[in-house]
């Protein structure tokens, strides 16, 4: 029994880690007032870039840096479209997802089935995830940059009147979000699966968007949310491994149904926690 | 200058814009292919020769347009009141699932009635699947964008569950598929091609939608909500009800697409029933900005691209999902233009 609990918990931590990085990525982006549904695509680009880097260099740290930068640069396509071109955020995010699906498939075609050593057993990304959530909490709460980002997300016109350039801060926030999204993907391909396969994120980018709402835009609550969802994934895997007579396809639905359930149960409670100008982009003063 | 041109030749300008967009997207995609050591010219020759070079290619392009037009309407109809339905793929799968249920369990029905019941089941299944998201949104509980996205995964898994489990063909060895449908459950096709009755469904839905929006009180109210939801609410239009109903209609059409695919193309239920028609429909609806004629034109373009993806996979060892890049670049250009003009 103790062994079962221990394997469930360690599974929850392992599966929850990429979700936590992805949730923090979306959280920073939304705190700056931008909804990014393209996180799924950013994760895929990070996952494949990290995998290719690990395959050729054999170094996990190089792979993580490459994945983060790839995610950051890729997310700048989204930033340019929604900030400079004022494109619809939701539709552009989905287009970014399509782009990431195709691009990662093209990049990874020669690496499907390849073997890598991946991350070491004492996985630095797992150990780093919770401290990172604390760091982001502190940055958003106490630093000048974090406060300004939040001000832009709440009311960009007021931030502009106070002498800040909302777009510059949103570009910065989206770049940081891209870095974290890339790391989230890298943890999937280097730490969890240790292989590359097309569309291996399987909707985790969208689950992260749901988790941000569940966490009411708070980095520390995101830790609990990611652990809960990691637990759901780990429970499903361990039930399959034990041959519980429930179809694996039904068990696979668990994380998606859980996302819907927590959002529906949270109802209006989260609405007041949302950044004031979420989804609307600053268009200059009239 | 350009304004006068737009006034006098609105169609010419729209066409020029469309061709410019197409050329830009094709150029970007060519650059990406070149970057990864593939020959873009050969890729384009393969795509266009196989789709538009032969009569068979044309007929197959039209076959692919059918589900695309229906899933595009599934996005465009709720989109008329700014709902973002990204669940076309899931609604198509549920429609296919419901229609399959009818085909398997009501196979004794007379030949004229069975397809009607299957179409009804498919539309009802897809419609209810989408209406659930509409309900969650109307209550202010969950954004329809998130819920339709998440429910896509649930729908696809549900289809996998039945074809690997309770509905698995007992004679199918190990293939995950249902038994073949009885002949009465197959939609009629045109001559020797695979173009099927679904084409009539799709075109009728497009015409009907355009007429209802222009000619009826109901369409006027939908347009009022789309124009200014707050003003519409104050004149007493029940917005919540419209949200659920429009999602139901949209999901129903995606479900009809799923029914037509299993009935006319597959002849049984398989998990590989759609190469992402629901997602392509989303792109089409945004490119056409919900306009019926635009939906037909954009569906044609996307049908060529979708068919091209299959060809590239076979002739050039490029993964089929690479055409997603081309779709995304086209959408980037359209969205960037729409935003800048606002």
Task: Provide structural commentary.
Chain A is mainly α. Chain A has one domain: ABC transporter involved in vitamin B12 uptake, BtuC. In chain A, 73% of the residues lie in helices and 0% in strands. Chain A starts with a helix and ends in a 20-residue tail after the last helix. In chain A, 55% of the residues are buried. The mean pLDDT of chain A is 89. With 342 residues, chain B is mostly helical. Chain B has a single domain, classed as ABC transporter involved in vitamin B12 uptake, BtuC (Orthogonal Bundle), CATH 1.10.3470. Chain B contains 14 helices and no strands. In chain B, helix 1 crosses helix 2, helix 5 crosses helix 12 and helix 8 crosses helix 9. Classes of the chains: A mainly alpha (286), B mainly alpha (342). Chains A and B meet through helix 3, helix 4, helix 9, helix 11 and helix 12 of A and helix 7, helix 12 and helix 14 of B.
Key attributes of the depicted protein:
heterodimer; A: 286 residues; mainly alpha; ABC transporter involved in vitamin B12 uptake, BtuC; 12 helices; B: 342 residues; disordered N terminus
The CATH class of chain A, by name, is: Mainly Alpha
Q: What's the architecture of chain A, going by CATH?
A: Orthogonal Bundle
Supply the CATH class of chain B. Answer: Mainly Alpha
Structural class of chain B: mainly alpha
Percent helix range of chain B: over 70%
Order of helices and strands of chain A: HHHHHHHHHHHH
CATH fold assignment of chain B: ABC transporter involved in vitamin B12 uptake, BtuC
Strands of chain B, total number: 0
Largest sheet of chain A: none
